Each structure stands twice: as C-alpha cells, then as structure tokens.
Amino acid sequence: MEVEHMKGGLRSRSYNLGFKRTKVREENDEEEEPLSPMARMFHQPESNIYIVIIVGYKRLIDPDVYKTNLTETFLKHPRFSCLQVADEKSGGEVKWVKTNVDINQHVKVPMVDPYMASPDKFVEDYVANLSKTRMSMSLPMWDFHILNLKTSDAESTVVVRVHHSLADGTSLMALLLSCSDALPSFPAMKKKPISRGAGWFPIWFWKSWSVLLLMWNTLVDIWMCVATTYFLKDTQTPLKAPSSDVAFTPRRIVRRTLSLDDVKLVKNATHTTVNDVVLAMTQAGLSRYLNRKY
C-alpha cells in the first residue's frame, strides 16, 4: 500500500514540479524513455536533491580546453544531453528528450581575485551559495563552475552540480574519472586461502551462529526504530532538519585532508575497508561533538 501510494503521488503531482510540457515528436519515440520512479521522486519538493562534487587540479584550467574536453567526453552520456519533459500525449508522463547542448550555458567561469586572503573559505562559501539556487528545467540539469584559484590543496578547483535524477554520486565519480587521460589503477582483491583441514562441524556452527546473530541484530534494530519513532525525540542539533521546507536552505560543505597511509594503516589493523574506516571516523567525530555540545 505504501508503494502504491507513493507511485500515485508521483504520477498525480507530475504537472506541478516544473516540468516542461510539450507534445513529443513521434519520429523520435524510439529515442525517448520515461523517467524511473526514483528519478521522479527526486523532483518532489521534500526530496529535491542536487549532488555537488568538488574536484581539485594540479594546474590552472584553460576554460576553452575544458569545454572542448567535456563536449568530447562528458556529453557522450545521453542523460547529460537530455531534457526532462512532461509529454501531454501520454498523460503527463515525464520522459527524457534529446536536445542540443550549448556548453557555454553549463560551464561557469566566475571572475575571482587570485590574491584573496582566504581562498579555502571562498570555495566553501561558493558551494554554500550554490545550494540556495535552483536549476532551470529548460536545460539539462547540470553545470560546472571553474575556479582558477589556488587553495591549500589544489591550484584550481571545479565545482560540479548535478540534479540527483540524472545520476548518483558513485556513477558521477566513475564518469568523471573516465573523462581523465589516465585512469587510476585499483589493486586486485586478495583471495583468502581456503582451509582444507577444518571439519564440517566448526563451519556449520560458525554459519549457524552468524545467522542467529543476524536475526537478533535485525530484531533489535527494528525495535529501536519503532521505539525511536513513537517514544523518543531527536535532540535539537544543527543536523536535525527544521519543520519547514529544507529543499533549498543553505548548506556548507567543509572538507578536510587526510593521509591515505594512515587510513590504510587502520584498515589493515581492523581488517576492514577504506570506506568503513572513513565512515566510522565521520560517525565517531560527529557523535562525540554532538554529545559533548548538546
């Protein structure tokens, strides 16, 4: 029932989300496909989300060369050269419609003072201001912002903003890496040696115990979720969203540089992954800060 209600809400509200309404040309029907339910969900007022990626470069960027490279690589992906159009012939169903992309409308090169006192703070403020603005749906919903400004980590910075209906963060990172000259090399996964000496009973016992632990932890998580929903209240912290519409409230992205060698040292000591270590550090840092202050 919940899924059916969500689908109905998405379909019935499709005209009120700012989609361009037009009659789609019949000769291009084979090139068009409807937006997925997830893509349509990201246009709802309560979940209108943009992805922001900050890329640092080792040298200053020539905007004309950068635009040419984007045209030859980034725009090859069909999603970034399509509009999201509500087709009146199909009852307002939103479809991807191919369009001609003017790269100059998507690549912004603001004039910046290269000798400013705090370039890192400027980049943070620039990204925070981007979170206050909407993208026009008359264009493919992405843009690049070239900041030829030396920061503590890079000679120049590019801020990429993409609407979440086009892609997720992981696929965007993979797409940006594929646009570079040399792709990074990833180490091959090491296979754990299979022990031939162990009998069937230890293996059976370990698997049974793992299943029981999984079931117990699942029940505990469900109970905690229900208890939190009905009996507990979140502490008022800056991380808790206000009751008003938060789709375009200003946000600030604060970045910190970590030593990858230190992260790998912890990863090897705990037999986990780099993602596990970074996520655990972030969660532990936020928890300690919020518990101490609030």
Automatic annotation (TrEMBL):
GO molecular function terms attached to this record: diacylglycerol O-acyltransferase activity
Keyword match Acyltransferase: yes
Keywords annotated in UniProt: Acyltransferase, Transferase
Entry superkingdom: Eukaryota
Pathway where it operates: Lipid metabolism; Glycerolipid metabolism; triacylglycerol biosynthesis
Signal peptide per UniProt: none
EC top class, as a word: transferase
GO cellular component, one term: plasma membrane
Any Pfam family the entry gives: WS_DGAT_cat
InterPro entries: CAT-like_dom_sf, O-acyltransferase_WSD1-like, O-acyltransferase_WSD1_N
Matches recorded under Gene3D superfamilies: Chloramphenicol acetyltransferase-like domain
Protein name (database record): diacylglycerol O-acyltransferase
EC number(s) on file: 2.3.1.20
GO term, biological process aspect, one: triglyceride biosynthetic process
Chain ranges of the O-acyltransferase WSD1-like N-terminal domain: 89-193
Catalytic activity, reaction form: an acyl-CoA + a 1,2-diacyl-sn-glycerol = a triacyl-sn-glycerol + CoA
